[in-house]
Structure formats: C-alpha cells, structure tokens
Amino acid sequence: RDRDLGRDRVLRRYRLDKAAIAGLCRELGADLESLTGRSHALPVAVKVTSALTFLASGSFQTATRDSTGISQSAMSNCLAQFLEALQRRAARYIAFPPTTARAGTVAGAFPGVLGLVGGMHVALRAPSENEPVVCDAAGTITNVVAKFPGSCPNAAVLENSALARLLEGARPDGAWLLGDRSYPLKPWLMTPIAAPRGAAEERYNALHHQALAVLRRTLALLKLRFRCLDKGRGCLQYAPQKVCQIFLACCILHNIALRRRMPLELPEGLPPPRNRARPTPAAPPRADVQRGAGRAGPHCPAGQGRPRMRHPPPKIWGGSGPLRGACRDA
User: Fold this and answer.
1) Would you say the pTM of this structure is higher than 0.85?
2) Residues 146-162: what's their mean pLDDT?
3) Three-state secondary structure call for residue 124
4) SS3 content of the chain, % helix, strand, coil (to 5)
5) Which of 71, 84, 262, 289 is the most exposed place for a label (fewest CB within 10 A)?
6) d(CA 325, CA 99)
C-alpha cells in the first residue's frame, strides 16, 4: 500500500526512506518471516513498517491504522519481533570506541575526544529510565547504556558501566570523553570547572559547553525523530526491559538515518520534544575545585588528582542484550 507514497510522506511516517526500509526488510527478514506456515501470516514488510510507525509516532493507534488495519495484538507481536531482531544486530550500528578517523576534534578545541557522554530520561509507567548515551562529533551514537532506572545518578551509571571499565583499562594516550557537571572528573573524562577563575578557565568552560552542544542536539533529534521517546506523547506502557529494547532500536535507526543523510521530515504543528524528568543532579563537590587537580586534557596538565568517590552499584532493570563489541551495556 505504501508504494504509492511520495518520499516526503514516507519520511514523515517512518523516519526512513524506501531504500532504507527495504534494506531493513532484507536484513531482518530471516528473523521476521513466519515459521508457522499459516497462509495469513503477516509479510516482513508489514512487520517492519508497523514497528517503524509506532517508534516514529509513539502511538499504537497510529501504527495499526497505517499498517493495513492489523489488530493491536498483532501490532504488539510485530513490535516485539522487530525489536529482538534489531537488537541482535546492534553491534553493526553502535560501536565504541570509534575509529581513529571519527575520533577527531570537537568544537575546534578538544583534540583526541572519543565522544560526548550524557544522559536522557525516558518516561515509562514506572518512574523513568536513565539512558546514558555517547555520540561522536557528527552526532552518531557510539555507545548506549540501557538498563538503569531513572533514579540512578549519571555518575553512578557511568561508573558501573562497561564503558568506564574499558576507558580505565585500555584507553589510548591522549583520548578523552567530555561530560557535563553531573559526572565526576576522571583521567579520561573532562568536565566543566566548577568555579572558574580567570579568562583561561572561563574560555575552557565556554569551549566545553560548545562541544557538548553536539550531544544536546543529538538527543533532541532522537526524540524528534522517534516520538515514542518523548514524554509529551505520554509514558511508554511497557516493562523496563522492553523500554530498553525500544531505546536501543531508536538509537540504531537514528544512526541508519544519519548514514543515509536523511532529512528529518516532521508533521506540521508537531510540538517540540518534552522531558519533564527532574533536572540532572550535580556531581559531588570536588576537592580543590578541580583547579588543576587531576585534569588531564589538552587545556590542563595532569596533576595529582582529587579523591575518587565511589558509587554503590545501582539497581539494574535488565539490559536489552549485549552489544557485541568492546562495551556490553545495552
């Protein structure tokens, strides 16, 4: 039925173009084809487009209306099969650390930055989920930690992640992450100076804020592209484990859209994304106010460092399966 839709309508409905959708059908076909032999089994294309419609709109009613009138129970099965199939292929689309060519200079001031790290709250019928995300300078998502409840501080989630273990053990010389003040200062994590003194430290903070704008834009685009993640559309009525799968799928599809340089076509009058989750708390007070203490980056020399503050392991709701790469957090 969708063969007659123009390119713009396809992008608005599915957030991917026809070629990308056809590619997904081919890639996921072996997992989505019915094994029951029933004559009325749904085609792979219907399952893929039904799932994409839900992720793009955040509405089961919209997805079932636009997918040849299938029932909501059939729609639920389509979504579950699609998420499982896409999750198995996550490592093809989300990989950390990035290649040397992609680990470039951020905002023209931070050489050797492997990525920008920040958290995003996803509302569900339980409180929420805290989903730390790492992206590169182009907005490509390179790491996802999709298994912690929203009550976990960003610092605790990062400290108990495979990403932190990787960077503490095998980080290349001269390579860092950038994070906001909700994260603690680490030898591999550059954060803002809490109380800058003088023009040099103020300039560092300004450049740091400018660099993190890429991450803020990436998370905003993720919510705009996939409205199921936007609290303005209501909370996701799923168990936390399923929400982890939904978030991971949206990140994979976001990267596919970026690779294919697809414009973000949105319906007219669509409100901006909303996130009513409480503000991210600041990291614990820092010894020596960060001034030269342990900051090892292109603008500040390495020093003795401040006392390391350990966080107890947070409760894990259950990840959506391993990313088969260096980091296994999603």
Assistant:
1) no
2) 80
3) strand
4) 40, 10, 45
5) 71
6) 13
Domain spanning 113-290: which CATH class is it, in words? alpha beta
Please report the pLDDT score of residue 176 as a whole number: 86
323: its two tokens: 């990313």
192-221 as b/e, with b when 16 or more CB fall inside 10 Å?
bbeebeeeebeebeebbeebbebbeebbeb
Q: What is the dihedral of CA 319, 116, 249, 327, to 10 degrees?
A: -40
HSE-CB at 159 with a 13 A cutoff on CA atoms is: 18
CB count in 10 Å sphere of residue 47: 28
| Under 8 Å between Cβ of 21 and 67 | no
pLDDT in tens, 228-267: 998 766 788 888 888 899 999 999 999 999 999 988 765 5
Bridge partners of 135, per DSSP, are 116, 141
Q: How many CB atoms lie within 10 A of CB 139?
A: 17
> Taking all residues of the chain, what is their mean pLDDT, rounded to a whole number?
77
Q: Domain limits of the chain?
A: 2-88, 113-290
Give the list of residues 6+ apart from residue 67 with CB closer than 8 angstroms, or none.
46, 49, 50, 53, 75, 78
CA dihedral 123, 126, 132, 136 (to 10 degrees): -30
Give the residue-averaged pLDDT of 293-317: 41
| 162 touches 168 (CB < 8 A) | no
